[in-house]
Amino acid sequence: MKLFDRRLRPAGDGNKKEKSRVRLLLILAVAALVVLCIFLFGRGKNKTYADYEIVQQVELGEDRTIRYKAYDGGYISYGRDGAAAYNAQGGQRWNIAYTMKNPVVAVCDTYAVVADRGGKQFYIVNGQGTSSRFELAEKISVVSIASQGVTAVMTTGDERDHIYLYEPASQETLVDIMTVTKSSGFPLALAISQDGRKLVTSYVAFDAGSCLSWVTFYNFGDVGQNYVDNMVGSYSFEELVPELSFVSDDTAMVCREGGVVFYRITEVPKVLAKEDFTESIKSVFYSKSHTGLVLGAAKDKGGRLVMYRNDKGKKILDMDFADGYSGIYTSGEDIVCYDSGQITIYNLSGKQKFHCVTEKNINEVFPVDNSTRYILIGDETADIIRLKREE
Question: How far apart are CA 21 and CA 267, in angstroms?
Fold first, then answer.
């Protein structure tokens, strides 16, 4: 029998064929995996739920003036005498004591700022409960916080207003931007980016019955060092601009009375996308991935719900929305709206995922760690619920 002589084949030819075969198999495997992921993701988005079960219940205090805010998979309770953070199971993470007339809370990741609106003090608190107290000379109007605890504070005075930036564990002022009310107008809103490097503000001036708002952008990184007062751009609107947010480090959402504008700020602000509305804006809500607006009268026919992707400002949903609600937010792939006695959840395609009428009053609904567990804050208890699939 003649032995196979490998020298008769060109050197490396077999390796090339083997590598080509392996490459083809890898491409087919990746393609199959992509198709499977799309299929499973699509199925997951279209899941519907018929009911819920209470998996844990925590008693709340009797003080009905306490308010609540979602915080890192749990919540913060706050009132005039102090604030406390809890995980989803009701375990206390931290608490601080203070005396405030009108406390407000802003959150970014594990950091929180608690400020006395109209007063002069505020606290920056990290996830471990370490707090820093600050006392200002002017009255606090608005606060916003970044993911590492850098906090922007907008204050009002008799003739001059200030925007301050502070960081935890330091009483030194990082930034002090002064404006004169007579020339700059009254402060309305501000927002700091998650990385603490960018800021956007809104001021309004009235003259002979007309309104003019200025939206101004600041960059505290390397780019901003080349501009006076780090101001890299400004836009004017002949209407109020009451709502601002950095929906990503490089994208700001500006909500004015007659529409919404998304700005991309890599160096200087540029319009990424915008839309004008004929209806009035009733609610604005946003997450790191999506922004939503409720237009028209939410409790009457004719209302609309529109959703946008933050990275491109692209509208992905425009649906009729006549539901009554006291709260609405977006988390992950869900849009959650609720009032005192019912909860409705939609996916980002506008399909109803869940609806129920509850036996007890609901004040707040917060997400936990996935799309099936939520915290219901009632009058007497905080309930962790899990949605149950339809049979």
Answer: 47
Please give the distance of CA 2 from its chain centroid, rounded to a whole number: 75
Q: Is 47 exposed, middle or buried (0-12, 13-18, 19+ CB in 10 A)?
A: middle
Buried b (16+ CB within 10 A) or exposed e, 312-339: ebeeebeeebebebebbbbbebbbbbbb
Torsion of CA 222, 228, 232, 235, to 10 degrees: 170
Q: Where does the chain have alpha helices with state H? A: 13-45, 181-184
163 in helix, strand or coil? strand
Average pLDDT of the segment spanning 174-198: 91
pTM (2 d.p.): 0.84
Largest CA distance in the chain: 108
Q: How far apart are the C-alpha atoms of 127 and 109, rounded to whole Å?
A: 9
Cross-strand partners of 132: 124
What are the φ and ψ backbone dihedral angles of 148, each rounded to 5 degrees?
-100, 10
CA 9 distance to own-chain centroid:
64
pLDDT digits (tens, 9 = 90+) for 118-172: 999 999 999 999 999 999 999 999 999 999 999 999 999 888 899 999 999 888 9
